[in-house]
Amino acid sequence: MTRQENRPDGGELLARTLKAAGVEEIFALHGGHLESFWQGCVRHGLRLTDFRHESSAGHAADGYARTSGRLGVCAVTSGPGFTNVISAITNAYLDGVPVLFIVGSPPLRDVETNPLQGGIDQVAMAAPTTKWAHRITHAERIPELTAQAIRTCLNGRPGPVLLDLPIDVLHTPVAEARVRAATGLNARTAPAPAPAEVAAIIDLLKTARRPAIFVGNGIRFARAEEELRRFAELAGIPVFCGGHGYGALPYDHPLWCKDLALLGLLGMTGQPGIDALLAVGARFGLFSGGRGEAIVPSGIAIAQVDLHAPELGRLREVKVPVLADARETLRALAEAARDVEWPDWSAWAATAAGLKTMTDGMFGPAPAEQSPIHPHHAMTMLAGVMPRDALYVLDGGETSAWSHMALKADASWQIIGAGYHGCLGVGPGMAIGAQLAHPGRRVIQITGDGAIGFHIQEFDTQVRHRLPVVTVIFNNQLWGMSAHGQDLIFGRGRRVIADLAGTRYADIARAFGCHAERVERLAELAPALERTLAAGRPACVEVMIDPEAVHPSMPAMVGADKPAPNEIMIPYYDNIVLD
User: Fold this and answer.
1) Which residues of 365-401 are buried (b: 16+ CB within 10 A; e: fewer)?
2) Which domains does the chain have, with CATH numbers?
3) Which residue of 210, 283, 440, 449 is surrounded by the most CB atoms within 10 Å?
4) How much is the mean pLDDT over the chain?
């Protein structure tokens, strides 16, 4: 029963509330616990995109939110449906992405009866990696509590929220008079900095010799790109990004420097590094060099703007901490900057911006008959063939690193991937979410042969929903980062569980109904990519790359870049120093 004498059930109330909040897309995998909700979605015109694994549905909602700035919504069933989506919840949490996860659960009356797909506390399991996790126990409260969940997702530092909806609550009809209204659906906060904080940031930067701006996800979700450009141009300060800030300024902008990690090249070439830094919506951590000194030296003057207080002062002492919205702060800085006599930093800005092209020629010429293909040559060719406004979803270890070296983004939604969670397999779902968020653009998933194996079945989802995602698989027949890391730490000949030889991924994609090609020579790649784009349907290009090619960041990633005699190398973190 869905409606009887003006008595909507819980599924109807949930769908109605999401519609009122402006939600258009639901990423899902069918489960009986949510039957009444599925019916409500149909009635209210909410598009349901169903997947072959719940994790991909969660990553799709994440990719939709990352590339659109809007709320992503994922709905999955109880028990294994919920546990399958935990990686996606965690990925959104660690990167601050606003996703509402709706999960079914057994009837409230069946608690402690060993019910089907029950027996676990889903709310307690989700609580550590969500902004809020809550079980709704009365149907009439669904609109009110769903509105609270949406406010929580989108305000302050964005992040995921989980709503647990027992099947009996969703299927129970209630009188309209008892329904609690969905209030505050459009509440959005954008706290501005205090005038004294703006003045302090201006003073900090104005007295520097080599200042820089460091941006991240906060620019994307605040839609602060224009304000960033205005302030950077008025002050003449170069702009770098972490793992989530690509495209905050157009690639060819004279102040755009791309990865903050490139600052490490200054020390390697005997040049001085930055002496002041303004971090806006960017966190200090892996993408800023962690506790190391090569990228952001300790002791330099730092101003940091963030919506999440725990980030202010993480890893580095912050002279000017500002708890505020990125857009409002940059707008205030741009207004103040018009009346400031700024130093001439043009020489420094040119040096900083030049870092993004320093590695272009480090791998030599690209012979047309090259086979297997060097990944940098392949990635450079791919970047030259794809439309300039293409949206890239990156998956995999070294494959993502090669991508970052070659791809050019002009907008902050153009390059996305996993961040601090380091979660492989995000690509298929994120690419589908991105394609639905940007139906008029080409979405290119770039992945490794290891990462594609997690959710290769989502080729079926792309075909069923007619989503023309292009998947490019860099196949070196290895868990590349693992194999090369073991070589660096232990020496050649000691690889363990790192081989992936023999699988023909293009054949698998073709069997799912995709246009698919396998490329073994560099000369074949551009024509194959062009045919793939022209096909206008889900497609896969498998590129056989050189298994001996090691990304230049790998020695640092595994602690093999000049370890001290008393250090034990460990991959991805600081080496262990023995007393």
Assistant:
1) eeeeebebbbbbbbbbbbbebbeeebbbbbbbbbbbb
2) 10-178 (3.40.50.970), 195-357 (3.40.50.1220), 375-556 (3.40.50.970)
3) 283
4) 94
